[in-house]
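In this section we walk through a basic example: taking a raw amino acid sequence and producing a predicted 3D structure, encoded as discrete structure tokens. The instruction is simple. Fold the sequence below.
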Amino acid sequence: MSPKHSGILVFIACMLCFGESEEYVLQPGDVISINVVEHPEFSGRHKIRPDGRINYPVIGEIDVASLTCAQLVKIMQGKLSSYINNPVVSISIEAYYANKIYVIGAVRKSGEYQIYEPIDAMKAVAMCGGLQNPKVKKIKIIRSDGSVVTIPMKEFWGSDTQRDNRKYVLYPGDTLYVPDSGTIPWGFIGAILGVVSTTLTIVLTMSRISSS
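The resulting token sequence is shown next.
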């Protein structure tokens, strides 16, 4: 199987749902640091267990996977309000479970790349040697949760002030997809779907992506 088709297989595997996402979503294996101002007894580092939970002092078990840091801050403030007046909470990610991103499609060298912090989409393209088709009109970031962010190339090639750097950042587990052209090889994808018995939901999702 050609590298191009192998890349498409990875693309299919990533497409589980569609939506817009701008913030990293916590997942099992991540290590987070919870800091409660002036209350070190409630502060500390926690590794998210495979069941998506952490064991927090006094409060006990808390579901944190599938939440953003901002969402978890609000939850923690609510839970701590029973013990602290007006708790001030901050949460940071100390370590990601998987420090890899994937770049597939029309790039010089597709594959997986190790990263040590979230990186801008332009840096990700540079890591893989650049685009094969400089006339491509848009590329896509496929988040680890299956949501998709479309990057118009006019914004991609713009200055740092023109690009929405917060939105066009890849986090561990994300995939950057660069199409060959404005079309997707539906014949090849259909054959693969028949072999692996992939659900119709994925086909509909990819159709939405191609028209967005």
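Looking at the output, two observations stand out. The two ends are 29 Å apart (CA to CA). The chain has two domains: 3-22+98-211, 31-95. In the next section we compare this with other chains.
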